[in-house]
Amino acid sequence: MQSTSSVPAHLAIILDGNGRWAEQRGRPRWMGHVAGARALKPIVEHCVTRGVDQLTVYAMSSDNWSRPAVEVNALLELLETQCRTRLHSLVTNGVRVSAIGRRDRLPLPMRRALSDLERASAAGRALHLRLAIDYSSRASMQGALPITSATQGTTILPPVDLLLRTGGERRLSDFLLWECAYAELAFIDTLWPDFSPAALDSVLADFATRDRRFGAVSATRRAS
Length: 224
Ligand code: IPE
Ligand code: IPE
Ligand code: MG
What we know:
Elements: E1 10-14, H1 18-24, H2 29-50, E2 54-61, H3 69-92, E3 95-100, H4 108-121, E4 127-135, H5 137-142, E5 162-165, E6 184-187, H6 197-208
Parallel strand pairs: 1-2, 1-5, 2-4, 3-4, 5-6
Helix pairs in contact: 1-2, 2-3, 3-4
The chain binds 3-methylbut-3-enyl trihydrogen diphosphate (2 copies) and magnesium ion (MG).
């Protein structure tokens, strides 16, 4: 069931712009991912405060393997470290964490860090945070076709109410294509490492004004 609440039950974020953030400062791109990881913590906490039930973030796409090895390796190491160092505070805050995407191509220590975090946080009820890592929506949907041998399996999530992409691009880049069928879209120019809880509040305030009709006629017009 799709939510009709003024707060998105399911918020999905394409956290884009880390590389450009670093380049603008004359630093290597991987440093942008470090800054991006830092920016995520207050956003997760803010989602809890605002009553978002589910937050799905695009941390690494399957197409991101085609980036230079130094960047990919730094990103994977960072994700692993984040899973380990954030475990305690996520569990304390009642955040359940799970991962979607392929695991078979991830380094073993990272797979362990992910499953440790999933196990330790399984009872969390304040927010369900999903990390999309080595994720491809098309590959995920192919898993539903009987004739394919996709290794990813099929992961269909609850419908997305609001899809937010930072970093200025206006595209989905193979993220939650099915689940975004009736998602409201918010594209903002701020690079992810600069994204703040106050900026999220602006996006949420805009979402609250949207007239979501789901193909029907809105309640205010139904009488005429
Ligand atoms: C998004 O930032 C994070 C990942 C893809 C892992 P980018 O690294 O795509 O940043 P830009 O788009 O190059 O600035
Ligand atoms: C999408 O961003 C993937 C993540 C944010 C993890 P990209 O930066 O990889 O997407 P494109 O290449 O601009 O479409
Ligand atoms: Mg990008």
